Amino acid sequence: MKAFLRGLEICNQDEAYYLRPENILYVKADGNYCDIHLTDGDVLESVSCQRAEIARMIDTQLPSCLSQKFALLGRSYLVNVEHIMYVNAGKQTLAFDINQPGMCKKQTIKVSTEALRNLRISLEGLFNVMQSSNMMETGGAINGGFTDYMATPQKEKNYDVQEDEVKILGIRNT
Asked: How far from the centroid of its chain's Cα atoms is residue 121's Cα?
């Protein structure tokens, strides 16, 4: 796997996609395949990579400032947090704002209540981490293990999460 000069290379034995990270809205897992939803409304269907593999590619190919814009959300989703418009845990809804030139619309997905609550906590923690000059001081115990995840060497990171868990990508040891 080589890093694509201006983005992300998602590849396996038979196919390769070259995507700009800002154009990825979310990734939805479907067994050994994923559907990659893009901000222009297109969907790359049945990409033969597991969601955890795509998360690993994002985490390793992109600089931390870009990869931490993605979060593993439950067992099914990898979301671009920059496009989140609102989170409604009570209605189990996550909405994305996909304003592009010539179009203004939103897209929603259904996610477990607890995963959405954890997403809000993680996003607040990520905001605090990004505001701090020392990431480890303000990381705190977000989602019961975020600090441990931040301190884990890159090669040992686990990209599997339970139904109600959230992990923000891109936080690395310095």
From this structure: 15
